Amino acid sequence: MIKKVKKKRNWRDKYRFTIVNDTSFEEVWKIRLTKYHAFLSISFLILSISGLTTILIAFTNLREFIPGYPDVSMRRNILMSAIRLDSLDREIALRDKYFANISAIISGGQPIGNYPRRDSATNYKAIKFTSSPEQSAFRAKVEGEEKYNPNMGSSGSVEMTSLASLHFFPPVKGIISGKYDVRTRHFGTDIVTNPKAVVSAALDGTVIFTGWTMETGFVIEVQHPNNIISVYKHNASLLKETGDRVRAGDAISIVGDSGEMYTSGPHLHFEIWYKGSALDPEKHIQF
Hints:
By secondary structure, the protein is an alpha+beta fold. The protein has helices at 2-12, 35-59, 72-106, 133-146, 150-153, and strands spanning 14-20, 27-34, 175-178, 189-192, 198-200, 205-213, 217-224, 228-238, 245-246, 251-255, 268-274, 277-279. A hairpin with a 6-residue loop joins β1 and β2 (27-34). The protein is elongated and about 125 Å long.
């Protein structure tokens, strides 16, 4: 029992550490500590040194001196290699999908899937369609006038002397998001409208092409009298087949955003060609 009491007292006993000048025996520095306080002080000092060393290695370039740790150039090369590998995987996936779609089209089936590329140039989802009473009245007036469209009852065999005498039926009604521009090789007009809206034929004619391309998705082309051809791109689906006769205003397709290029939302790309030259659709049609 006495030994235990002595051990406890030893932890509480105070000790003096003194630094003495050897010549004059003057005390230069001294400190009084118990064993308990000395243990805590040494432990705190060790933890402080360990924490400071860890911080220096983690947040400074000293970590590059650790054997096996990559330097800045090596980490940059690793990152660039990962980016190139990801891009290569994406290109291979697109190539496989392209060949799969080609095989499906050749065999007479439907394309396996469409993978449109999105861009941030135009936010089509933010476009809101609003109509005022004046717009509704104007639309009703135009629709009433189109009932007496001479193209609706004609067979298309009558030769037109000029484009000015033609009455083009609007394929869709909506907001123009892309204008005709020869400098950028944009030979048509982009019209944003409600998704799944019906696309109508602009004039009487015969469907000369229906198909799917990687760039423009589902496409339909109609041959009209007087060497006029109308083209409708980025459709969700086609309602006519090659060789079908259509009249102005007939439904020929459904608005979509098919195609892997040149599309960033549901819209119709509409072109008019006259004797092999592209025309500005806005000069002939009021969308």
